[in-house]
Amino acid sequence: MTKLFPKLIEADLIVFVTPLYYYGPSSQIKAVIDRFYGIDNMLRGADKKAVLLVTGTNKLDWAMHGIVGNYIEALQYLGWNDCGKVLARACRTREDIEKTDYPEQAYLLGKGL
Q1: Is the CATH code 3.40.50.360 the one for domain 4-112?
Q2: How far is residue 25's CA from residue 35's CA, in Å, rounded to a whole number?
């Protein structure tokens, strides 16, 4: 985290990328987000932008509600701005993703930033 903290402080945009695990983020990215607390005073209100990219095997819309809610609440707490989300449903493998328009959605999202 000591290497990541300066990059977080300097960045204008943070992209949260994770597979969906039990309707939330993976434990690896959750641990990093939890460590934001160590530099909370430098991250809160820093007028940063954020994007959420998630893949999950469940095809139902409600399966992403928990992770999206967690993301939105974290941004509200931090005072950051949501710039978009790509929620790749029914994607178990890379090949599944490549057969969809999700890569194009991610490209257009990035291009629009």
Answers
A1: yes
A2: 15
